[in-house]
Amino acid sequence: MKTSIWLLIVSAGALLALGLVMLYSAEMAQAGQPLFRQQLMWCGIGLAAAAAAAAIVDYRWLKHPVICGAGFLLAALALALVLWSPLGVSKLGATRWLRVGFAMFQPSELAKVVAIVCLAAYAEYNRRRMRNWRWGLLYPGLGVSILLLLIFREPDWGATLHLAAAAAGLLYFAGARVSYILVPSLIGLVVLAFLLQKDPVRRERVEAWLDPEAHQQTAGHQQWRGILAFGSGGAYGLGLGHSRQKLGFLPEHQTDFLYPIVGEELGLIGSLAVLGLQLTLIASGFLISRRASDWFGFYLGSGLTLLIGIQALLNMAVVTAVLPNKGIPLPLLSYGGSNLVMVLASLGLLLSIARRGTSQPLPIPETTRVLVDQEEHLPNPQPA
Q: I want to staple 352 with a disulfide (CB 3.0 to 4.6 A). Which of 59, 110, 245, 308 is the partner?
């Protein structure tokens, strides 16, 4: 357990430090560097939240029905305020931000974490019934669909798919049958494909993804420039601060496309180092979850790890043109206060789970779906 804790802390710290360095480098051509200063502020808030979650908060408090219900209502209310109140802020054709005093916050980031907490509490309470389609899919699916629909309405297709994938993974770990998850997932993809045909902007993104070179001056411009950044970096990179694509060629290079700047300045070695740190972070999260002292800790830790891991893999797949372009930040690296605070708070909850973990893993069968009738075989928790 101690090894997993240190791997989590070191990998997260290295990614956070590298993200600040790369953001500073990405803004070198701009006067004042306002984004770097704002990211430092959000970093301080996020680290305070992580420290509080790790040292003060007992993660088991979160499964109380009152806390879960209040969190769900708060997340839903914040999403509704974004859509239907003057506090909602629109950018580039989407309304995703809520103005809070002098800053703006993305409620969808809060909603993702709240959804994982509520699903984890639900899964523990109904652990013996999760292989029944109503308890394993219908009831939790209806609950999380409220948040998914509000996020989709913003519109934010990427965040919707991100949360849906993490929720499906958590339900699978909790014992839901694959067939229960697969059927609605396929139906959802068919509906998205239909809506895609009605949305010219997103349809053009898919066409650009299929042939980025032919669309390098239009919808495929961002991904094409990202590929050029990786290619020009070579094995060892052009050197810190020497990126050419950040000089007005690669749009949104401080946020969703910061990873290509890493590849251009630090080369293949730097890119692989970031990938290795992200994979280490994900592996550490699952190892900590595996040694939780109760099933809620296992479900919560696994869900939060899925949330971070899926986001990292999606970002890397987008900037390397493996998937169509969709704005999603790279955890702990990309500029974005809302995501940074919630990722750090999630890591703090993982450390809270680790502090109360056991020296022996939970008795999960070889097929993680069969999690029923295990409670009587749980070992007495031994402090790690």
A: 59
By residue range, what is the domain housing residue 87?
2-28+36-358
Domain count, the chain: 1
CA 198 vs. chain centroid, Å, equals: 28
Q: Are the beta carbons of 286 and 256 closer than 8 angstroms?
A: no
Q: Is residue 379 part of a domain?
A: no
Position 15 pLDDT exceeds 90: yes
Of 254, 232, 348, 352, give the one whose Cα is nearest residue 296.
352
Domain-embedded: residue 378: no
On whether the CB atoms of residues 296 and 60 are closer than 8 A, the answer is yes
Give 56-84 pLDDT, tens digit per residue. 999 999 999 999 999 999 999 999 999 99
pLDDT 10s digits, 339-348: 999 999 999 9
Q: How far apart are the first and last CA of the chain?
A: 6
Taken as a whole, the chain contains a residue count of 384
CA 70 from chain centre, in angstroms, equals 22
Tokens of 305: 């790890």
